[in-house]
Every structure is written in C-alpha cells, then in structure tokens.
Amino acid sequence: MHQSRLICFNKPYGVLSQFTQEGRWRGLKDFIDLPGVYVAGRLDADSEGLLLLTDDGALQARIADPRFKMPKTYWAQVDGVPDEAALLALRHGVQLNDGLTLPAGARAMEAPVDLWARDPPIRQRRAKPTGWIELTLREGRNRQVRRMTAAVGLPTLRLIRAAIGPYTLEALVPGAWREIVHS
Prior knowledge:
Layout: E1 4-11, E2 38-40, E3 48-54, H1 57-64, E4 72-79, H2 84-92, E5 95-96, E6 99-100, E7 105-109, E8 130-137, H3 144-151, E9 156-164, E10 167-168, E11 177-182
Parallel strand pairs: 3-9
Antiparallel strand pairs: 1-3, 1-11, 2-3, 4-8, 4-9, 5-6, 7-8, 9-10
C-alpha cells in the first residue's frame, strides 16, 4: 500500500500557492524543498495560513474539489465589529456578483490565541475598531471570504485559513510545515 505524503504548511503573507516566485511575491520553494509534492487548493498571496500539499493526485482532488465538500475554516479580521445581522447573512448565504453563496458557518470570535504578527501589519484606524469572524465554507470561489465579508459591510483586513477538513495549523509558525502520514 502506497503511503501518500501530506504536508501541512503555514503559508506566510506574500507567498504564492506555487513553487515559483512571480513579481514581488515569493514562491513555496523558499520554504519547502520536497520533490513530487503539489499544492491541493489555493490561498491568495495576501492571505495566510494552512496550505496542503501532497504527492497523491486522488487525495489532491479530494482536498481541492468543491464537489467533495471538505470544509475550510477561515479567521477574518474585519474592518468593524461583526453584529448578529451580518453573521446571520453569512450563515444564510450572501449575494455576490457570481451568484448566491452556500450557507456558511459564521461566528464572532476573539483574536486567535498566540497569533503571529503579520509582516507588513494591517492598517489600523484609531476611530474604527476591528473584529474577528470565524467562517467555515464548503465551496471555493475566487476570493470568496473577502467578497462575503465586504457584502455584509465588514471588509476583510487580514485573512488566515485555520483548517481544511480535519487538518489544522496546530502550532505551526508562518513558513513552517509538518508531514502527516496518510495511507
């Protein structure tokens, strides 16, 4: 029985979900030097957090393909304080320019414990507080979390993917990775 390689990587801000760098954005090769592993799903350069890589094409498809409905959990620091109306809208699905989103898990949360500083830091305005939302999606549209929070009047300032299905960041610092045995 072939043992698949599965890598959990905490992708820092400013790093692409590909091995080669492009313009001002760094690539994964600056952090991971493992031949034969490929990214399962994407995370924008301006987003941080969990990125999975594997050498198993079937596993890659199960992780990345929305048909398999593997939930993805995000922590979004938003411009403003989330209220129940905004959270309810996110839970029911919001209208975006490419259609209505599926209902999402949405709850207000405190800033994550032991959260690393982002480089560069987000902009702060003294007059306007920020808040945090935990959002769990079962679909993967382009820049979906950012578009959903903006649609309910809470633009995302910082976005961290905390989990993909059963896989989590679990104490990984930005730029670090760990391998999970997957049979």
